[in-house]
Write a structure and sequence with these properties.
globular, mainly beta, four-stranded antiparallel β-sheet
């Protein structure tokens, strides 16, 4: 909070990962990587209170694991799919809307940047990839960027 104190909001998470808020601050998105889930919560922007946890999106194991997350100005939720060779965009209702294929198996995180937040930056990992995979994906571990045609949501600064 603004005084620098922290408060536990949730438990039972296996691998805590990407997080983000809808443009109006009223929906909080959170990735639990191992079960392949992106959760959505109702959020009170004034107090930070969370309620009504629900499954926003489930990524099947065969498709990879959800990792880093970012939200765009239209309320779309972007997620890097570790071992999935892609980044996905979901509409605010949880429906898969867009897939950006990547030349690497492990996109790891994403963020919007640039003067108008129109550039999507995508990090990737090469950790524990076998030599045969690295031969097929030599750009693993690289940083990528693209212009998806949608700007990122403005992020409020922490006031603590």
């Amino acid at each position: 909070n603004a005084n620098g104190a922290s408060e536990r909001k949730e438990g039972g998470i296996i691998v805590s990962n990407g997080l983000g808020w809808s443009p109006d601050g009223r929906t909080f998105y959170f990735v639990d990587t191992v079960p392949g889930l992106i959760h959505a919560y109702d959020c009170d922007p004034a107090t930070g209170a969370l309620s009504q946890r629900r499954e926003f999106a489930r990524i099947p194991v065969a498709d990879g694991r959800p990792d880093g997350l970012a939200v765009d100005a239209e309320g779309g939720v972007w997620c890097a799919i570790w071992d999935g060779w892609c980044v996905r965009r979901y509409l605010a209702n949880g429906k898969l809307d867009q897939v950006i294929d990547m030349p690497v198996p492990r996109p790891s995180s994403i963020a919007f940047g640039g003067p108008d937040l129109s550039t999507l930056f995508i990090t990737s990992a090469r950790t524990r990839l076998p030599a045969s995979t690295l031969a097929d994906a030599p750009l693993s571990g690289g940083l990528f960027s693209c212009h998806p045609g949608i700007a990122g949501a403005r992020i409020s600064l922490f006031e603590g």
